[in-house]
């Protein structure tokens, strides 16, 4: 039942999203959008080498998109590009391939595990992870002297 995915903790995370807003001078901005439900997450990211130093986001999403964005905002600062790419793949596998949820500082993502049974909710749950990885790619492309192919703003 949908009540399984919209539990009290998900609603708490969705209602208390840290780091809302925009950064004045981000290194990159990326937007992820779910055509299915209309949810959109826009992230601003600053990095020093491979490490995230600042983050803000504009979240116009359902409770699941808000909850995953809330978890991201709590732990993204200090995370590396490689860690965040692996996190995105771990969450994708959790939802689509019955993979295990992440552990350590990202363990709260296990709260989203019941979403795997609701394919229509996968895209909104993945928005923040997709946008962060997109922004990282933009920053790395700029650092390597190339314009990113999929830059969104």
Secondary structure class reads alpha+beta
Count, helices: 4
Tell me the radius of gyration.
Answer: 15 Å
Number of strands: 3
Q: Which sequence of strands runs across the widest sheet?
A: 1-2-3
Shape: globular
Into which percentage range does the β-strand content fall?
15-25%
Low-confidence runs: none
Taking the sheet with the most strands, its summary is: 3 strands, antiparallel
Order of helices and strands: HEEEHHH
Percent helix: 25-40%
What gap, in angstroms, lies between the N and C termini?
36 Å
Mean pLDDT across every amino acid position = 93
Describe the structure.
It contains four helices and three strands. The protein is globular, with a radius of gyration of 15 Å. Strand 2 and strand 3 (51-60) form a beta hairpin. The mean pLDDT is 93. Strands 1-2-3 form a three-stranded antiparallel sheet. Helices cover 39% and strands 16% of the residues. By secondary structure, the protein is an alpha+beta fold. The protein has helices spanning 8-15, 63-75, 81-96, 122-143; strands at residues 28-33, 40-48, 51-60.
